[in-house]
Amino acid sequence: MADVVANGVRFHVQRLVPKDVIPRTTVVFVHGLIIDNLSSFYYTLAGPVMDAGAEAFLYDLRGHGRSERPATGYAPDDSVADLAALLDVCGIDHPVYILGNSYGAVVAARMAMTHPERVAGVILVEGHYATVGGSSWEEDMANTLTAAAMRLERDELPEQAFKLSQRKFVKFLRTSDSLLNGTSIVTDLACARSIEADELRTIRCPVLAVYGGSSELIGAVDILRANVPDVTVEVYPGLAHTILAEATDSLRASAVNWLGDRWVERSEIALPLFAVG
Fold first, then answer.
1. How buried is residue 136: exposed, middle or buried, by Cβ count under 10 Å (0-12/13-18/19+)?
2. Is 246 helix (H, G, I), strand (E, B) or coil?
3. Which end of the chain is less congested by CB atoms within 10 angstroms, N or C?
4. Which CATH class name applies to 2-131+194-268?
5. Domains of the chain, residue spans
């Protein structure tokens, strides 16, 4: 566990490195919003990725988990700037793979578009883009966050939780309250611009996109297939926006196998191995 200051913010970072071997590459994990943090990957995908021979790089987004919670800077472009700065500060100057879940997938896609030289490939789990489903999801997310912020501001949920003696839940609610009502995150996300189809066409690295067949974001699948040059799509029937939690084993296998195939391809073109920075 380590604290790293990047882009003017203190981030909580975890780096898992294979023992006794030079790591093949680095896989960066980017989690979702509000209730999420790096632990959702730490206990699911990071270990298997490390066992496959890569460094697993995990961090809490600004305002989340154990990272600092500044008052502003919660738009997707800010998250991309944070990630680029983290890689710089941590000495990671080789192309990385990025695995993002939900909002983390948006950050991963934007990183691939704006910093192509730094991204070897991305895994997008339930990412939202400028599709019919994606646009409505963004509106629903903004409305949900606003409603949650208002309820927390009035202390309705914490009071209910105290009555149920759910102290751990109360701590979670207070943390969420601090993020939703003490920062610009709701406004920043409500004003954020969706990724358009012509922007997706600029992604030149390999992409694995994973969606639930019952997800409100399933419309993104056709958009990605039509616009991303090198994309592999997997759809999990019967699942919605909870793939990481409800299909952990399947996602783990898909991610590790896809990454392993990419590493083999890169080694065939004599890409040099490197040590961890």
1. middle
2. helix
3. N
4. alpha beta
5. 2-131+194-268
For 85, half-sphere exposure in the C-beta direction (CA atoms, 13 angstrom radius) is 16
Question: Which amino acid is it at 234?
Answer: E
The pairing of strands 55-59 and 9-16 is: antiparallel
Contacts of residue 38, defined as CB under 8 A and 6 or more positions apart, other chains included, come to 12, 14, 29, 31, 58, 59, 60, 65
pLDDT digits (tens, 9 = 90+) for 8-54: 999 999 999 998 888 889 999 999 998 899 999 999 999 999 999 99
pLDDT digits over 120-153, tens only? 999 999 998 865 444 454 555 555 555 554 454 5
Question: Where in the chain does DSSP place strands (E)?
Answer: 2-6, 9-16, 26-30, 55-59, 96-101, 119-125, 207-212, 231-236
Whole-model pTM? 0.86
* 203 burial type by CB count under 10 A (0-12 exposed, 13-18 middle, 19+ buried): buried
* Euclidean distance between CA atoms 252 and 195, whole angstroms: 26
Q: In 3D, which of 155, 37, 32, 211 has the Cα closest to residue 105?
A: 32
Three-class DSSP category at 103 = helix
Q: How far apart are CA 189 and CA 178, in angstroms?
A: 16
